[in-house]
Write a structure and sequence with these properties.
The chain contains eight helices and eleven strands. It is of the alpha+beta class. The protein has a single domain, classed as Chloramphenicol Acetyltransferase (2-Layer Sandwich), CATH 3.30.559. Helix 3 crosses helix 4 and helix 3 packs across helix 8. The N and C termini lie far apart (40 Å).
């Protein structure tokens, strides 16, 4: 248990994926009053002005036509920077105790093809403090291209594991799932099950705009450790009243987020949302490493 992770020496009570943290009496009791993550959901929905961000994306694609950056890549990067700067957003409650992850992890779902019957693949990656929007965009493009190239006939990781479990007879599968959930409660699930599973990510995103769907509420899951679910809607034009009193047609996108209120309070969540707004409004911050502070004034 004395193994060091990112300079931190693990202690008794820590998990493989996070260190145990002390919380207030209210947060501790909330873990018992609301033992399930779905009992403690809070939903935020906001509209983001992405006009300048889309110009930034256009510039990036002119510079690097081989790896096309998208609005979704930028939002992933902005959220990763926010999680790094706002550490409570990287906490989770499991087994009625609160932990803080050792690193940031981001997950999302990719359709293997834009077809009603096409399968989906679960993608998971862990950006580092040195990553910026270019490296994050490359990672996402590489993962999506690889999984679509392999297709449903050559799955790997968590997708392959799920397909294997699905072949187990129902009575036995019920017992296996119950046992896995028991291990999950105590933080003892083997790495083979948790590695690459979006349910164990810091943030789980769904790019609904890619299928022309608006941002919607998406529930959390009681299994795993994920406590932040984000949906990104479609880009649309809307007349906006600018600070100087003029009106302009701007590019807007709706973003919805479901959070586990046991990891923080509304004030902390609101400030974290403002930080994402600030990063999207100042896209040059995306060129800076995730570990570099944004300089945002929270007052």
């Amino acid at each position: 248990m004395a193994k060091e992770i990112n300079g931190y020496k693990r202690k008794w009570g820590d998990r493989r994926d996070g260190r145990r943290v002390k919380t207030t009496g209210m947060q501790t009791i909330m873990g018992h009053l609301y033992p399930n993550r779905t009992d403690a959901e809070v939903y935020l929905n906001d509209t983001f002005d992405v006009t300048d961000l889309l110009e930034f994306v256009k510039m990036k694609n002119e510079q690097h036509p081989d790896y096309r950056t998208t609005l979704f890549h930028c939002i992933v990067m902005a959220i990763a920077k926010m999680v790094k700067e706002r550490p409570l957003m990287n906490r989770f409650v499991s087994g009625r105790r609160t932990y803080e992850r050792f690193g940031i992890s981001v997950a999302f779902v990719a359709k293997l093809a834009f077809d009603d019957h096409a399968e989906e693949a679960l993608l998971f990656f862990e950006p580092t403090d040195d990553d910026n929007v270019d490296s994050v965009s490359h990672m996402i493009v590489d993962r999506v291209q690889k999984v679509r190239k392999k297709g449903s006939e050559d799955k790997a990781g968590v997708d392959q594991l799920l397909d294997t479990f699905a072949k187990i007879p129902r009575p036995l599968l019920m017992f296996v799932v119950k046992f896995i959930k028991w291990l999950d409660f105590w933080g003892k699930n083997p790495r083979a099950i948790t590695e690459g599973d979006p349910h164990y990510s810091s943030v789980f995103l769904s790019n609904l705009g890619s299928i022309k769907c608006p941002a919607v509420y998406h529930h959390l899951n009681n299994y795993g450790t994920n406590g932040i679910m984000v949906t990104v809607g479609t880009i649309h034009d809307e007349e906006v009243l600018m600070p100087d009193g003029s009106k302009q047609i701007r590019k807007l996108v709706d973003i919805g987020a479901t959070l586990d209120e046991r990891i923080g309070d509304g004030f902390y969540f609101a400030r974290s949302l403002k930080l994402v707004h600030h990063i999207c409004a100042n896209p040059k911050l995306l060129d800076k490493p995730i570990g570099e502070p944004s300089g945002f004034d929270y007052r």
